[in-house]
Amino acid sequence: QVLSLPIVVIVHGNQDNNAKATVLWDNAFSEIDRVPFVVAERVPWEKMCDTLNMKFMAEVQTTKGLLKEHYFFLAQKIFNDHSASLEDFQCRSVSWAQFNKEILPGRGFTFWQWFDGVLDLTKRCLKSYWSDRLIIGFISKQYVCKLLSTEPDGTFLLRFSDSEIGGVTIAYVIRGKDGSSQVENIQPFSAKDLSIRSLGDRIRDLGQLRNLYPNTPKDQAFGSHYNSERRELG
After folding, report:
1. How far apart are CA 8 and CA 10, in angstroms?
2. What is the 3-state secondary structure (H, E, C) of the chain?
3. In sequence order, what are the residues at sequence separation of 6 or more whose Cβ sits closer than 8 angstroms to the Cβ of residue 70?
């Protein structure tokens, strides 16, 4: 007899997300010579980072993986800790409950449900943008404000929504005549929105967007992602 790869049987599609979390955790963190069905309840955060990165690259089918600053944001999210340093997180371990049982503060979903939504959106609608490093994605709203507040009017960046599963939003700076700045966040776009009109074309439509952070003109950054508009003949 041999142990198979992990299998989960579900009776409804709404259980799919939890099933994927169970398979991922079991596949990544169980020992080869373990007692059947015994899996670690906690794993080192560094090991979790490697797993999330491999999952992201495989699912999206991209060679551009997660960066150090992405892991820092994900650690702040899963541990609900915005005071620790990157080095502090590297010494921590993450539990199954933190991964896919406990609801994120102020939200209606778990860390894995949120991350899986990002995976699905990126795979379906954002693969080329991610692979061209046009999307920062994993970054907090607060840090975006810090980055953009000193930038020229119309500077923008793209981040995955914190409040919605499977959404990407555009944050941009508006600078008043007195020099004061205000960072605005556009309502997140879902996969359904982006199937109607692509992200590139939506960025082209928005006149208030000028330069992709830090200083790339938007037509230069996204020009290859614009669709040539068809003109209807009267």
Report:
1. 6
2. CCCCCCCCCCCCHHHHHHHHHHHHHHHHHCCCCCCCCCCCCEEEHHHHHHHHHHHHHHHHCCCCCCCHHHHHHHHHHHHCCCCCCHHHHHCCEEEHHHHHCCECCCCCCEHHHHHHHHHHHHHHHHHHHHHCCCCCECCCHHHHHHHHCCCCCCEEEEEECCCCCCCEEEEEEEECCCCCEEEEECCCECHHHHHHCCHHHHHHHCCCCCEECCCEEHHHHHHHHCCCCCCCCC
3. 137, 138, 139
CA–CA dist 77, 30 (Å, integer): 24
Give the torsion sign (CA, 118, 124, 125, 128): positive
The strand pair at 168-175 and 155-160 is best described as: antiparallel
Q: What is the mean pLDDT of residues 21-31?
A: 65
Say how many C-beta atoms besides its own lie within 10 A of residue 176's C-beta.
Answer: 9
pLDDT of residue 231: 37
Are 26 and 39 spatial neighbours (Cβ–Cβ below 8 Å)? yes
Q: Measure the CA dihedral 99/103/105/111, to 10°.
A: 30
Domain 13-223 sits in CATH 2.160.10.10 = no
Q: What are the structure tokens assigned to 183, written together?
A: 């960072």
Global pTM reads 0.84
Q: Where are the domains of the chain?
A: 13-223
Token reading at 68: 């150090």
In this prediction, residue 84 has a pLDDT band, given cuts at 50, 70 and 90, of confident
